[in-house]
Amino acid sequence: MIIDSHVHVGVPPREAEPKNFLKLMNTSKINKAIIFRYFYDKPTVFSNQYISSVVEQFPNNYLGFAWINPNEKTVTKELIESVTKWNLKGVKLHLEMHPTPLEKLRKIFNIAEQYTIPICIHLGNDFDQIELLTQEYDVKVIIAHLGTGVYCLDINRLKKAIELAKNKNVFLETSGNTYPLVDYALKALNPTKLIMGSDFPHEHPLVSVKIIELLNISDKNKDLILQKNISKILEI
Ligand SMILES: [Zn+2]
């Protein structure tokens, strides 16, 4: 069993068509994927409803997260509906794209705690805010791209993310990084703290799986990173 925990579906771009990723899952032996959309020209509510419909169409393969902008006025209602009406199982924040003041982030953490959903975060320069929030709320936090960004490979950002991941509720997701950075994170933490993601269509998912398979750890520990850690967070 392999779960890809960071996948974008939705056209454009053309290759991010849900059926196309299903084919790649097949060739990469991936059983399930956590999907969210990109931001595009329409309000996020359309993206979240779209993701919900894709999950409904392929319930065995896909599990959806809402993607929201915490600065928007309607965000509280939208996030609650994403969970209660549209069957989405988590929320994705892109804080590099949408820097957000602490008070607004508290609202999101509050809902996540209330509905027991994880928050996946693409970090901007918000390490201190997130550290504080993970102390204030009992919410599982998945730091996308090991905190470094997409192929930015910044070791100083990785070191800060490793500090965040010392909190029991914080996990690091591996997409957008090369083998040496994933290996560095593994050596600084342990296999229970890492989660495999590809960030498709920015990467072929099999490349991301192979990085984990190449790590010098037991098959049992690889299994934690490839699926058990995320399964436990999502209770699936
Ligand atoms: Zn992404």
Give a nutshell description of this structure.
The chain is an alpha/beta fold and 236 residues long. It contains nine helices and nine strands. Helix 2 (44-57) links the parallel strand 2 (32-36) and strand 3 (62-64).
Q: Which secondary structure elements does this structure contain, and how are they paired or packed?
A:
Layout: E1 3-8, H1 18-28, E2 32-36, H2 44-57, E3 62-64, E4 66-67, H3 75-84, E5 91-94, H4 102-115, E6 119-122, H5 127-136, E7 141-143, H6 155-164, E8 170-173, H7 179-188, E9 194-195, H8 205-214, H9 219-234
Parallel strand pairs: 1-2, 2-3, 4-5, 5-6, 6-7, 7-8, 8-9
The structure holds zinc ion.
Key attributes of the depicted protein:
236 residues; alpha/beta; TIM Barrel; six-stranded parallel beta sheet; three-stranded parallel beta sheet; binds zinc ion
